[in-house]
From TrEMBL:
Originating species: Dissostichus eleginoides
Region forming the signal peptide: 1-21
Location of the C-type lectin domain: 24-137, 140-251, 249-363
Protein name: L-selectin
Coiled-coil residue windows: none
Superkingdom in the source lineage: Eukaryota
KW Signal (keyword) present: yes
Lineage: Eukaryota, Metazoa, Chordata, Craniata, Vertebrata
Keyword Signal on entry: yes
PANTHER family: C-TYPE LECTIN DOMAIN FAMILY 20 MEMBER A-RELATED (PTHR45784), C-TYPE LECTIN DOMAIN FAMILY 4 MEMBER K-LIKE-RELATED (PTHR45784:SF3)
Membrane-spanning segments: none
Keyword terms: Disulfide bond, Signal
Length: 364
């Protein structure tokens, strides 16, 4: 069989193959939130962390029961960082476009103020319960941005509307600084507009900083000490009193960061002897999950399970998959056959010599 045909077959197999780097488990026993977290940490990894809508679907498929705890709990004091509604967009303080004197640390959602100079680049923190027009972002399609001005909604209602009809509330400087965005918002100069920036007053039990939230917009109307999150019958989330007994969702992690310095071959042997393999990344969702591990490494780079073959002149995963997804940094490529892939703490992939000594990430 010719090599070109072999490559084509492997590419087809690769692109229809999906693996998950963690699994959800539904536990029917009724426990308080703290008891549920202890159970999950003893038997699995932790209470369920949810990073996007795909996770929501996977978690729902693990059980038909609603009204169950997940691993989200209200913060008690301390730092409450700003997050973008789109899970993969990172907030950078150095790029913030706050009005003078903002944020004032009293409100938790953000709007773009009306401006007499047709400039929507200034932000103002606002109470999330206030009603405003808002801007949605559409990941697909020719038009990317939609100002919703036919009705005013509070921030959570606006987020739900955008996720139902588009992708999400507009998120990040790349979107806000785009020409299309500026042209569209100039038409609504005299209106305050919600954007997808909010202050993080909830945190995940396992410490991950995923910004994805799927709140029921009406779930915060009741008063009370409702500091733990649960799923609802409408497939959204609601806060509730943490001591109430409920079933719950755990997750079991399938990747682990090894903080030992090894060459690529040594890392591969270690993972196969003690776990499963060096980790493979086949889509952007897995990329974000592995990236969280890379940020905790001792070395600047961590080995991934991808290497270069001179025979076929291509990169491949040691899990016998070709590269359908990649996140290469823009840099000059290396020469020679002794090349493997490492992830930097920023999540970008780099070619490195296999003889370098780095931390690495194993699949369990």
């Amino acid at each position: 069989m010719q090599w070109s045909l072999v490559v084509l077959i492997l590419m087809v197999q690769c692109c229809i193959f999906t693996c998950h780097l963690y699994e959800y488990h539904f536990i029917q026993d009724n426990m308080s939130w703290e008891e549920a977290r202890s159970y999950c940490r003893e038997h699995f990894t932790d209470l369920a962390t949810v990073s996007n809508m795909r996770d929501m679907e996977r978690m729902r498929n693990s059980s038909q029961t609603e009204g169950a705890w997940i691993g989200l709990q209200a913060k008690e004091g301390g730092n409450k960082p700003w997050r973008w509604s789109l899970p993969w967009v990172e907030y950078k303080e150095s790029e913030a476009l706050w009005e003078n004197g903002e944020p004032n640390d009293r409100e938790n959602c953000v709007k773009m103020d009306e401006n007499d100079e047709n400039d929507y680049r200034k932000w103002d923190d606002e109470s999330c319960t206030e009603d405003n027009h808002f801007i949605c972002y559409n990941e697909t399609g020719q038009q990317k941005y939609f100002v919703i001005d036919e009705h005013e909604l509070n921030w959570l209602q606006a987020q739900s509307y955008c996720r139902e009809h588009h992708t999400d509330l507009v998120s990040g400087l790349e979107q806000i600084n785009s020409t299309e965005f500026k042209n569209i918002t100039k038409q609504f100069n005299n209106q305050d507009l919600w954007i997808g920036l909010f202050r993080e007053v909830w945190s995940w039990s396992d410490g991950k900083n995923f910004s994805f939230r799927h709140w029921d917009p009406d779930s915060f109307e009741d008063e009370g000490d409702k500091d733990c999150a649960m799923t609802k019958t409408n497939e959204k989330w609601s806060p509730d009193i943490c001591t109430k007994p409920k079933p719950f969702y755990c997750y079991d992690d399938k990747v682990i960061l090894i903080k030992e310095n090894k060459t690529w071959e040594e890392a591969l042997d270690y993972c196969r002897a003690k776990h499963r393999d060096l980790v493979s990344i086949t889509d952007s969702h897995q990329q974000r999950w592995v990236e969280k591990r890379a940020k905790m490494a001792v070395t600047e780079f961590v080995w991934l399970g991808m290497r270069y073959t001179c025979t076929l002149d291509l990169w491949f995963w040691v899990s016998d998959r070709l590269v359908c997804y990649d996140n290469w940094a823009p840099e000059d490529k290396m020469k020679g056959c002794d090349r493997a892939t490492a992830m930097k703490r920023d999540g970008k992939w780099y070619e490195r010599r296999e003889g370098e000594f780095l931390n690495f990430i194993c699949a369990l």
